[in-house]
Design a protein that fits this description.
It holds the Pfam family HATPase_c_3. Residues 85-107 are annotated as: Disordered. InterPro entries: HATPase_C_sf. This is DNA mismatch repair protein MutL. The structure is a single chain. With 214 residues, the protein is an alpha+beta fold. The chain folds into two domains: 11-179, Heat Shock Protein 90 (2-Layer Sandwich), CATH 3.30.565; 181-213. 27% of the residues lie in helices and 19% in strands. The protein has five helices and seven strands. Strand 1 (44-49) and strand 2 form a beta hairpin. The longest helix has 17 residues, at 163-179. The chain is globular, with a radius of gyration of 19 Å.
């Protein structure tokens, strides 16, 4: 009897393709700038914030992604959007002439793991809602997880001010990979009974307890 089996992919594959392939931070930034160029951005900038938390932000004005494109392209390793036969529609070029592709392997997006353990990705396509996702690259260092075991929290929103409201929910969903979603929900409900609210604290993936004043 002949059985049909398939390859299974460990979560560490993302770590191998991303962080471990990047020599240093300048190389990682270069790869992300290539992605901005391929998205027909006219401007791209790197902002570095020194303080209690070390934060860097790469911002560009390329054509962006909607939620569907984020899930079907950005989250798909080896997608055809970087192959030679794929062309950017003219409407997405913002009046610019066709550009030769800089990112050929489709893994430049993973290079952000070399800049820091947490990635907050925000994107928007014209006439579409924003899409936000929160990724902890350290989850992909776990040798016992399969790629399908890691859940990436994604939210769509209409106005920029809504981002601060959805961040705690993205954090909770991301931490569900560690604690389990039901555990987080039950603990949050129990704490609120006692007037205590959970506030996402990005440093060291911790949680800060804040008691609501009466």
């Amino acid at each position: 009897m002949t059985d049909h089996v398939t390859f299974q992919t460990r979560a560490r594959t993302i770590d191998h393709l991303g962080r471990e392939q990047i020599a240093d931070c300048p190389t990682a930034i270069s790869e992300l700038w290539k992605n901005a160029y391929d998205a027909y951005a006219r401007d791209v900038a790197l902002h570095i914030f020194d303080g209690e938390l070390n934060i860097s932000a790469i911002v560009d004005n390329g054509h962006g992604m909607n939620r569907s494109e984020f899930e079907s392209k950005w989250l798909v390793v080896g997608t055809e959007s970087k192959t030679n036969g794929f062309n950017i529609p003219e409407d997405d070029r913002d009046g610019l002439p066709e550009r030769p592709k800089q990112g050929q392997k489709g893994i430049g997006r993973l290079s952000s793991a070399a800049l820091g353990p947490l990635l907050l990705l925000i994107s928007k396509r014209k006439n579409s809602d924003y899409v936000a996702a929160l990724i902890d690259w350290r989850l992909f260092e776990n040798p016992f997880l399969f790629l399908s075991d890691v859940q990436i929290p994604v939210r769509g929103f209409s106005e920029k001010h809504e981002l601060s409201e959805i961040l705690p929910f993205l954090f909770d969903q991301m931490m569900g990979n560690v604690w389990g979603t039901l555990t987080i929900l039950s603990e949050r409900k129990e704490l609120r009974r006692h007037g205590i609210h959970l506030v996402a604290k990005r440093r060291k993936m911790g949680l800060k307890l804040r008691r609501k004043r009466k």
